[in-house]
Amino acid sequence: MLKSILNLAWKEILQLVRDRVLLLFLILIPGSLLFLIAESTGGGIRGIKFAVWDQERSAFSQELITAITNTSDFQLTDRAQSYAELQDLFNEGRVGAALIIPPTFSRDAFRPGSTASLGVIVDGSNEVVASSVIGALQGVVNDLTLAQWAGQGGARPTGIDLKIDVAFNPTLNIRWSTLTGQIAIITYLIVLVVAAVSFVRERELGTMEQLVVTPISRLELLFGKGLMAALIGLFNLVVLYLALHEIFQIPMHGSLALLLTLGMLFVVTEIGVGMLISLVTASQQQAILVVFLLAILEITFSGYLVPTENMPAFMQVFAAISPLQHFTTISRAIFLKGATFTMLLSHVIPLLLLATGTIGAAWVLFAKAAD
Amino acid sequence: MSIYRLWAILKKEFRHIWRDKRTLFLVTLSPALMLVTFSYLFAMQVTRVRLGVWDQDQSALSRRLIASLTADDKFVVLATPGDYDALRQAMMRGDINLGMVIPPGFQAQLIAGERAPLQAIADGSDAISLSRVLASFRERIAEFNPQVAPEVAPLNAPITLNIQAWYNRDLDSMIAMVPGLIPVVLILHSLAIALAIAREKELGSFETLVATPIRALEYLIGKLLPYIAYGLLSALIAILLALVWFGVPLRGSILTLIGYTLLYLFASLCESLFISGFLTSQGTAMRIILLLFFIPSFFLTGIILPVDTRSFMSRTASALLPATYFVTVTRGIFLKAAGVGQLVEPGVALFVLGVVPFALSLLTFRKQVD
Fold it and tell me: Which of A20, A80, B104, B122 supports an S-S bond with A53, CB 3.0-4.6 Å?
């Protein structure tokens, strides 16, 4: 039995290696996508272009501008002299933020009891950037205020001194979050596509009937095809792990064995899903269309870009039954937080249930279809 | 080039799309459906910050701080750890994404008119949404500062920020996101045209076409025009949805928007047309379009985060994606009332990105026929 399963898996691998376009898809595109996304999100929200309309031109206003450009969050690109000039800069999208320093700025800031007001304009057409610009500016102004207090002596600062530590990702590198989620998405796409075309392809080519008349049992056929997809999944996980850890220097705080074990549980679940798709569709083209639609849905619900906790209740139901969501969370937690098996139980148990459910359903459907 | 033969091809293409209900759905209604789904997903404001509070002070002021943070549903206290280890564990399990530690003496220091330290620990594993979480947390703490209590020394704030958000006064993420997503959902037409060409090759009807007196130019234009027409139709549905359903203001001219939409469809369909020349099966066509256009359009066009311009690779890839320019255009026309004068650069880029692959497909098409 084992021998025929291995034979079948070998046939599948040979077939895959011969299909050059599919092979290219499996190796080249995920790799380049990983690099591209890593490259493009490496910067995070940094180097926001900003303009200054300095109506005072004093030492203190210059100090403020220097303090802002020193943060690497901002990059001074233009100096404006009027409101209209600022308007043009924003309309053409050449700056994302602007600072208006009023003519009485330093006088108001230093006179006890008075408050200097600093005009800030942000481009609201990208709300994510705008909010982080506001946060960063507030930080700079707070620091400057404190420094000014210290310089004056006498007057003591009051109020709450907020200090924020970022755990698990101290430099707030966005790449760490995207890539540890990306490992799940790439594995997902590859395994699902391979499994989804498995049976439907044989049926389309008419080779299914040939397979059925050979002495290979149905169980062996199912396992043989599954084994090939599982091997591809494992290969993928290992390669992606190496790329993340060695090339992109993402720290691995948890156990690699745990990541691979749970990764394989995820792969098995996706093989089940893929085989189900393969059994209910009539052609490869249909199978891939189903994969496409499912992938779009699952990727959006995976928590990869938007935390699932923020979704409305009915969307959370979908997230709860999405294997991709569970493994995305698991991957991030193991990589960045060093989570252990018991901490991840709330994701492992649903994955186990989904794996048994999909493989079981595929088996029942396959037995029926073959009769 | 004969108008008669072009007309024949056009008629055939329109009929193909019309008859195949799946393709018809793909090129008319599905962009609108996707726009609704994505808008709700990506435009989610930080609705809930899951807070863990370790209150070492246990004073009236510390309790007032917690109460003012959780006054609405935005911040919810889900754990009250008694030490750093418990806080870390709760964060590892994902129960909380922000921990707040109020040190002993918090109230006493505030009343004495000193700086009272307050520590916050944030979960950096989700760095994308964290910037918003932290921004709204800072804002709340700053708001709490002056109104603390009568017994607290008045806060001396020498500099205040007077913030205005242009184009989107309330920083409503829906208003920023919906115009940016319109280019993404129109990528479905690139998929549809690639599938149609691959199907012709699979079924062998491509060879039949080659045997007819149809010329390459007529074939390509005849292929392109119906998809541009359906693209415009679905773009209009999406724009209508943005205006009526999501309440996004259209501050620029609708005619400019339509003009640029046609240009964008031209560019993205031509790129897809060119790539399709190398593909032989529908399966491959779908994978390539999904991976080459769809996924990168979220990262490389700047709809969510600005593209890292320091990296040559991402700069090049983002420059080659028509969606990059069209995002600037839709956000510009919808929100900034931009006219053609401000949108020359994206217009030229879209034109080039359309003409070059079109010319290339014309050349490669000749080769295929020979």
Answer: A80
